[in-house]
Structure formats: C-alpha cells, structure tokens
Amino acid sequence: MKKTVAFGEVLLRLSPPGNERFMQSPVLGATFGGGEANVALSLAGLGLESSFVTRLPAHAIGDAAIRTLRSEGVQTQHIVRGGDRVGIYYAEGGVHPRASTVVYDRAHSSITDLDPSAVDWDKVFVGAHWFHVSGITPALGPKPQACTYVALEAAKRAGVTVSFGVHYRAKLWSPENAQRVLRPLLSYVDIVFANEDDIRYGLGVVRSRTERSGETGSTESYRQLAERVAGEFGIQMVAMTLRERAAGSENTWSGLLYEQGSNTLFESAHYPVAVVEPIGASDAFTAGLIYAVLAGRSAERALAFAVAAGALKHTIPGDYNRVSAAEVDRLATGEASLQR
User: Fold this and answer.
1) Most buried in the list 78, 143, 163, 276, measured by CB within 10 Å?
2) Confidence (pTM)
3) CA-to-CA distance for 51 and 6, rounded, in angstroms?
4) How far is residue 67's CA from residue 61's CA, in Å, rounded to a whole number?
5) In the predicted model, what is the mean pLDDT of the chain?
6) Are residues 129 and 159 in contact, defined by beta-carbon separation less than 8 angstroms?
7) Closest to 105 in 3D by CA, of 56, 29, 171, 54
8) Which among 105, 283, 319, 329 is annotated as catalytic?
9) Residue 205: helix, strand or coil by DSSP?
10) What confidence tens digit (pLDDT) does each residue in 302-332 have?
11) Is 283 a catalytic residue?
C-alpha cells in the first residue's frame, strides 16, 4: 500500500441546517474539515495509507478532531499537541441565485504557533511516496510558512513526489504577499493544483495580451497558463478543475491536466452534477489524481478518475469525500447505475 502524507490545519466547521442563513435558527452543526485534511481523509477512503501532520490543542475539541481523522483511517501519530484553539469556519450553504458564504475565525489557532522543530519530518517521510500541502497553510503566518519550507525540503531529501494546491484565499492575504511566499515554494513541487485565479493572484502568472485577445476561459487559454506555470517553475503536471453553472443547483463539472513531458493538455468528460455540497470537490479531485498517479495510471486516465471523484463529492454533505476507488471507477468508466 502506497503511503501519503499531508500537512495543514484541521478546522471546526459550523453550519446552519440545510440551506438556512446564519443563525436563522439557533442551531449550528459541528463537523471537521479543512483543505489538506480533506485530501488526507479522501485518500484514506480510496484505500491508501494516509498520514496527516498538524498541531491541535490538548483539549476535548482537539481530541474530537483527532478521533474524526482516526475513525476514517488517517494516521495521526505525527500530530503535535499544543496551543489553545482549533480554527473555525462558518459555512452557509447557498441555493442559486444566493451564493454560499464562508466566514473564517482561525486567527491564533494552534497551528499558527507550530515551530518547525516540533515535527521530525525525516521520520514522517520514512516509507512515504507522496506529500501534499497547499498555499492555505503558509498563509496562516510566519511559523506555518517556515514549517512548509522545512517539510518540502525533507520531502525532497526523501525522494517523495510533492503536490501543491495553490488555493489563493483573498481573506487570508494579499496577492503580493502570496506571490512572495508561494513562488519560491514551487521549486520543490512536482504537481500543481490551481484554477485561473490561483495562478494569477497566488503565483502572479497571467496570459499575455495576445493570449487574452482570444476567448476567455477557452481550453487553449488554459493550456497557455498551464504551459507557463510548468515552464517557469519546472512543474511536471498542472491540474485544474472547471465548474459551470447550468440551472438551479445543477453545475457542469470537468477538469484539465497538462503534462509537461508530453506537452499535452488532457480534457476530461463533463459531468452534470446536482450540488448538495460545493465545499471539498477540489480536495476530492486532488485526492483522486494522487491516487490514480500512484496507481500508475496514465495522465488521461488519472484525470478521468480525479474528475469522477470530484463529481461524486458534490453529492455528499460535509467537507471530505466518502467514496471508494471502486465507486469512482464505476462513474469514470460509465458503469455507474443502481447497485443491487
């Protein structure tokens, strides 16, 4: 079984019932999630050995977060205990035309004071095949930035494949600060997950005037962006998800994968999805691609698996995916139907 490692923050998610507004009724459902944690949880569900590194307080809420990870098969032996609070985010589900809303309350959370020396990264990567982290973690402050650098250096020493989700968040930092921190990190990275805004604001890579004169959002424009990211930073693969609103709660979901070695842009099938939960689809896509690449699938087949995993995630409430590899393969190969 291939071993994967992810590093980031576990967040407590508080959401009103169904599609109610915040505090419409005096009830908030409490679950756990967070970008990198979602990837780790999804990888465990797909059948890989999944380990997660973070820092959580040594109190009841921190304990509950660890129990959630363990209950889904994620290894937690490298989690550091300390600090006073678990980061929180409030998520209000939207229904077209009302958009979903997220409010962060994660300042001074436990991970923001994680010292790089608190984790034995060389030990973490013993036997590991893959490491995943995102731009959200270094956005949390100087110590998470330093930890991300140290982790990436250790991953490279261990010969581990590294993937990085750019995930630019305007509520966490400015484009100038993001680019100052994130651009140097990419020298350690093999596979990048990003959308066009991530690439523009998080990495400072934009299309030229000639390129912008073409159709905005065309497949060719995405190829140009992916080629530029791969060429400038020495990236092996650049993966993107695409979502188009159809009608009501239905979206069309697809993905693109640029492979630098073959100079090929692969485009997936387009899935019509009924959106039960918009949060976590890109994390499910990330986990799906990691799983498929580790399984030795071609770039085209890996993309098909990743997009199918993300499509299924739209139908599952909560932050992370709860599907098996067999379920994803049935959808990716067109065999999904009533199972008896």
Assistant:
1) 163
2) 0.94
3) 6
4) 10
5) 93
6) no
7) 171
8) 283
9) coil
10) 999 999 999 999 999 999 999 999 999 999 9
11) yes
